[in-house]
Amino acid sequence: MDYLNAIVALTNFVLIPATAYGAQLALGALGVTLIYGILRFSNFAHGDTMAFGTMATIGATVVLQSWGVSFGPLPTALLALPFGIAATIGLVLLTDAGVYRFYRTQKAAPVIFVIVSMGVMFIMNGLVRILIGPDDRRFADGERFIISAREFKEMTGLREGLALKTTQGITIVVAVLVVAMLFYFLNRTRTGKSMRAYSDNEDLALLSGINPERVVMVTWMIVATLATIAGVLYGLDKSFKPFTYFQLLLPIFASAVVGGLGNPLGAIFGGFLIAYSEVLITYAWKKVLVYTLPDALEPTGLVQLLSTDYKFAVSFALLVIVLLFKPTGLFKGKSV
Amino acid sequence: MVSVKNTALFAAVFGLILLTGFTSGWNSALLILNMGLISAIMAIGVNLQWGFAGLFNIGVMGFLALGGLAAVLVSEPVTPGAWSAGGFQVIAALLMGFATIALTIFVRGKTTGRVRTIVTPLLLIVGFFIYRAIFDPAVARIEAIDPAVSGNIGGLNLPILFAWPVGGVFAAAAAWVIGKTALGLRSDYLAIATLGISEIVIAVMKNEDWLARGVKNVIGIERPVPSEIELQESAQFVERAASLNIDPVTASTLYVKLSYSVLFVIVLLLIFLAAELALKSPWGRMMRAIRDNETAARAMGKDVTARHLQIFVLGSAICGVAGAMMVTLDGQLTPSSYQPLRFTFLIWVMVIVGGSGNNYGSVLGGFLIWFLWVQVEPYGAALMGFITDPMPDAWWIKERLLASVAHMRLLTMGLILLLVLRFFPRGLIPEK
Asked: What's a single GO CC term here (chain A) (predicted)?
C-alpha cells in the first residue's frame, strides 16, 4: 500500500485535467446562462461563437508571430486574445442587430428565439469552416510544462509523475480572474446591477428607467468575451477544430442546466460537476487501486466504469437525472 | 385545399429535380428524389410533434439511428455461434440491469428519509457491478468471433422490408421511455434533454460493438430490390434496355433507383394520409387546442400529459421508419455519420421552411431543403469558379474562395432558415 503515489497518480490523471476542463466548461456555461437570464432563450449558437472567437484569436496569433512578437514562456495567443474578443463582440453585436432585435421588438415566444439561434448556429458554423477550414489545429507555443512528470519524479523520488501543463495552469488562473471580475461587475457596478434587475423582473426594471437595449448590448459583449476566453483556453489545452467546438455545446448546456439556467453561480458549479463526473467515470482506476489496496485484492481489469467514448453520455445522463429530481437545476434556475 | 400557389410550389421543386435530371444525369436526380422522399417522411414525423403539439424535440438523430439499428438487427444473417457464445448472457445482463432500475424505483416508493438516500445509490452501485460482471465476459466472447467481418450478434435474417416497421417500433419504445421521463420538463429543458439523449443513443451505437459492430460499421445490408449486377446478367433485362435504347449498365442503375422510389412513395403516401386524417380528426383538433392553450385544454378535462406522450411516440416512430429506410437505401450502417447538424437540425429547417403544422408543407420542405443541401455545393462551385476566373492563379484569396465551396451548405441552410423565419414566419405553406 502506497497512499502517496496513489494521491499523486490521482492528481495527475484526474484532478488536474478535470479542474482545467471544468474551468473551461464553467466559462462556456456562464455565457449560456447569462443569455438565458437576460434574453430568455437557450443559445444554440454558443459553441460556434466560441469557435469564432478562437478562430479570430488564432488569426491574430499568426499575425503576431509573423511580426516576431512572443510572450516569453506563455503562449502568444494570450496576447492575441483582446483582438479575438473584439472581433467576436463585433460579430455578436452585428448578429443581434441583424437577427435577434427584430424578434425582441415583436416580443416573439422564447422558442422562436431558440429556432432563430439554430439558424445563427448554421451560419457561424459555416463561416468558421469557410474562414479557417475544418481541420484540427494546435496554436499553443511557449513553454509546454510548468512541472513535467520527469522533473517531479526527480524532485520527489516518487514512482508516479505529476505533470502540470502551462495551458492547464493558465486556464485555472485566467478562469479565476475572469469569474472574479464578472461577479464584481454583476454585484458592484451600476450596469451589472441593472442587468440583474432586468433578469429578475423585466417590467419592474423597465419601470425604473433601465434601458433594455443597453442591457442587452452589454450582455452580448460579456457573453462574447466569455465565449472567446473559454474557446481559446480549451483550444490551447487541447486543440482547435470547428466540429469539436460545436460538440462542446452539449457538455456546456449540461453544465448550465444542471446548475440551473440563468444562475451564474450554478453555471460554475455545473461546469465542475460535469467535468469531474466525466473524468471520474471514464477513468481507469487500476493504477490508483493497485497502490491503495492490499496485494491480495489487486484488480485484474482496468476498473473503468464506462469507456472513454461515453464522456458525453455521462454529462447527459447526469443532466437528465438532475432534471428529473430538481426540474430547474441544483441552484434555482428560471423557466420561461 | 389545393391552391394554385401550393401546386406551383410543388411543381417548382419537382421542376428543379427534373432540371437536375436533364443537366447532370438521371442517376443524380433519382438520388435526390429518393433521399427527398425519406426526408419528407422525417419532416412529417417532426411536424407531428412540433406542428401539431408544440413539442420541441431536437433528438431526431437518435430516433433515426434506432431505425437504422433495426435494419441491421432484422435483416443481417445470424452470426454463427454468437448466441451460444454469449447472446443469451447479454440478454440476461440487460434484464438484470432493468431489474435493478425497477427494484430501485420500487424501493424508493417504499422508503423515506435517510434510508432512501442511502439505499438508492447502494442498490444502483451493487446492481451496476453485478450487471457488468455478467455483461462484460459475454460481450468479450461475442466480439471475439471473427472480429474482421462480424464480432457482433448478427440479426434475424428476415427480409429487410420487415425492418421498416420494426424501426418504427424501436423508436417508439425509446420515445415512450424518454417521454415518460422528460415530457414534464418545460420548453428549453425538454429540448436540451432530447438533444442529450440522442447523443447517448449514438454513443451506445458507436461503442457497443457486439450489437451492430460499432464504428466498424455494417456494410452490404440486404436490399429489397435486385442488384445492378443481377440485372445486367439477365438477358431479358438487357434486351428490354436495348429496345429502349439505353445501355444496360445505365438502365440497371436507373431501374434499381426507381424501384426504391416506388417503395418510398408507397410508404410516404401511407404516412402522409394517416397524418392528414389525424390532423383533420377530432383528435387532431384536440392536439392543436392543447398546443395553443394548454391550461384551457386541461380545464376542459383533456389529459395533456398523456396526449403529449402519445404524439411524441407517434412522431418518433415515423422518424424511426425513415431511419430504417435510409439505412436500407444506403445499404450500410455507419454510426459515426450521424451528426446533429445533418440529422436533427436540417430536419427542423425542412419543417420550419415548409410550414409547421401543415403536412403538405413538411413534404415540400423535405424535398426543397434536401435538394438545396445536395445542390448548393455544385452551384456554389460554379459560382466561385465564375467569380475567381479573372483572378491570378495561386493567389491565396482565389484558393480560399475555391476551398470555401465545400462549407457553403451550412451557411446557406442558416441563411434560408433565418430569411424564412423573418419574411414567411409560418413557412412556405402555412397552417390553415
From this structure: plasma membrane
Are the beta carbons of A122 and B192 separated by less than 8 Å?
no
In a domain, A324, yes or no: no
In a domain, A40, yes or no: yes
Q: Work out the minimum CA distance from B55 to partner chain A, whole angstroms.
A: 10
User: Is A119 among the domain residues?
Assistant: yes
Residue A153 forms part of a structural domain? yes
* Cβ–Cβ below 8 Å for A115 and B192: no
CB contact under 8 A, B189 and A335: yes
Residues 6+ apart with CB under 8 A from B33: B17, B261
For residue B261, give the C-alpha cell: 422510389
Residues 6+ apart with CB under 8 A from B419: none
What is the total count of domains within chain A? 1
Across the range B379-407, mean pLDDT stands at 80
Query: Which sign, positive or negative, has the C-alpha torsion A231, A232, A236, A240?
Result: positive
Q: Do A253 and B195 touch (CB under 8 A)?
A: yes
Identity at A174, one-letter amino acid code: V
For the stretch B253-306, pLDDT in tens is 999 999 999 999 999 999 999 999 998 999 999 999 999 998 999 999 999 999
Query: Going by C-beta distance under 8 Å and a sequence separation of 6 or more, which residues neighbour residue B222?
Result: B75, B76, B159, B160
Predicted complex ipTM exceeds 0.85: yes
Which residues in chain A have their CB less than 8 angstroms from residue B412's CB?
Answer: 126
| Residues B191-217, mean pLDDT to the nearest whole number | 88
| Cα separation values, B101 from B109, B179, B333, Å | 12, 17, 30
Phi, psi of A266 (to 5 degrees): -60, -40
Domain assignment of residue A16, given as a range: 3-249
Distance from CA of B408 to the nearest CA of A (A): 6
Look over chain B and give the mean of its residue pLDDT values, rounded to a whole number.
90
Specify the pLDDT at position B31.
93
Q: Does A90 contact chain B (CB < 8 Å)?
A: no
Beta bridge partners of A164: A147
Q: Note whether B348 contacts A: Cβ–Cβ < 8 A.
A: yes
The pLDDT of residue A335: 61
Residue B409 in contact with partner chain A when CB distance is under 8 A: yes
Q: Which residues contact B191 (CB under 8 A, 6 or more apart)?
A: A42, A114, B56, B57, B58
Q: Which residue has the higher pLDDT, A291 or A23?
A: A23
Could you tell me if A312 lies within 8 Å of chain B, comparing CB atoms?
yes
Q: A-chain residues within 8 Å CB-CB of B189?
A: 257, 261, 323, 327-328, 335
- How far is A136 from B42, CA to CA, in rounded Å? 32
Q: CATH no. for residue A61?
A: 1.10.3470
CB contact under 8 A, B187 and A110: yes
Question: Do A115 and B413 count as a contact with CB atoms less than 8 A apart?
Answer: no
* % chain A with pLDDT above 90: 58
Q: What pLDDT score does B394 carry? A: 73
Residues of chain B with Cβ-Cβ distance to A125 below 8 Å are 341, 410, 414
A242 to chain B: closest CA residue: B407
Inform me whether the pLDDT recorded for A1 exceeds 80. no
Nearest chain A residue to B199 by CA distance is A313
Kindly state the average pLDDT of the residues B330-348.
93
In chain A, helix, strand, coil percent, each to 5?
75, 5, 25
**Residues of A whose CB is below 8 A from B184:** 327
Chain A, residues 289-308, CB within 8 A of chain B, namely 301, 305, 307
Instruction: Show Cβ contacts of residue B281 under 8 Å, excluding neighbours closer than 6 positions.
Output: none
What is d(CA A123, CA A222) in angstroms, rounded to the nearest whole number? 21
